């Protein structure tokens, strides 16, 4: 019960901080919008397969920027303060849930804008594509949260974050692109069930490993 | 002697499989022809790599609870040796692919995923170099190592099966089991795997001993 209460408080704190500054949300939104616009200016019209790949590449870089700040931007002093107040398990759960919510919101807005600029392929299955993007934002959130914790403890931020997270995110990204491509091509939904299961399994795996390892990482 | 019998076993096995692998008879097949012998040299590299990475995960877990420097050294040295075996696996695979698929690197899923899983461990080494303080380095790199291991397993064993690959044993292509009707290849393949795993372990113990002596002298 204690844990659930702590998680709730921490998520509330994150949201409040975000709401006051609106830095991450607006910054990343502007980032996504301008990237999509630059892509529009350079591509004008695109094929189905490029449509899908481009969306995931934009989302990959946007989510690295959005999630990386969860640990990297906090000062050492605040880390110490949080350490004295709550259990590490509560912290990683709260951060992951908050980042997942942030990413889901961000991805959906990005998808909406992306569909406005580049039309969604006519043969596509929009509902399936939305499921794929939600799954994708969940995986980005779980993996990047843990990696940003590792990078922030290692002491030098952005560069390390990219080096450490890309090899880990690539397998998930490949699965997601495959799943999303099925949706764009409008294949029958039963074809994609295996991939959905696979992404879910990888997510659960990452989450379980993070929960086990984070307490060791958090204690200095 | 009683302590070192496994080193002799490993050396004998590797010498036997190298000679027998090049000389003994193999099934005659189109396209593959004599390149089927690569099985004895390519696949054992991956087995040795997996064993070494598993050793390193074991010591990483141990070093998280024991906080001992020796466990950390064991973890990093087994990764160093494992990476060498992984690169050798990639190279032997690429040479084989040149003769059967026509290109050294044809961006087959199996090749790509193997390369990415090696990248994971390069990232581990970069992470180690980024941290100066020894205890902190031991802890953080151990955590990354444990975090990366399940991903490596997914990359090497799960994902290539989901995609169409030319690699034998994948995507409906027959593995060596189906060619080896009279078990001639098994008699060389299994000893080769065991031999290379032992040699890999041996190199790792030597490297570990060198590093621990260096550390004592500091």
TrEMBL record, chain A:
Stored InterPro entries: Cyt_c_biogenesis_CcmB (IPR003544)
Tell me how this protein sits in the membrane.
Multi-pass membrane protein
Any single GO molecular-function term of the entry would be: heme transmembrane transporter activity
Residue ranges crossing the lipid bilayer per the database entry: 23-43, 49-68, 104-120, 127-151, 157-177, 198-218
Provide the Gene Ontology terms for cellular component. membrane
Broad class of where this protein is predominantly found: membrane
The name this protein carries in UniProt is ABC transporter permease
Species for this entry: Pedobacter cryotolerans
Automatic annotation (TrEMBL), chain B:
Has the keyword Acetylation been applied to this entry?
no
Q: What membrane topology does the annotation report for this chain?
A: Multi-pass membrane protein
Q: At the top level of its lineage, which domain of life is listed? A: Bacteria
Q: Where in the cell is it found?
A: Membrane
Principal subcellular localization: membrane
For the Cytochrome c assembly protein domain, which residue ranges apply?
Answer: 26-163
The GO terms describing molecular function are: heme binding; heme transmembrane transporter activity
- Keyword annotations from UniProtKB, A to Z: Cytochrome c-type biogenesis, Membrane, Transmembrane, Transmembrane helix
**Which regions span the lipid bilayer?**
7-27, 39-61, 81-101, 113-131, 143-162, 187-206
Q: What is this protein called?
A: Heme exporter protein C
Q: Which organism is it from?
A: Pedobacter cryotolerans
Q: What does this protein do?
A: Required for the export of heme to the periplasm for the biogenesis of c-type cytochromes.
Record's GO cellular component, any one?
Answer: plasma membrane
User: Which GO terms are recorded in the biological process aspect for this UniProt protein?
Assistant: cytochrome complex assembly
Give the family per the record.
Belongs to the CcmC/CycZ/HelC family.
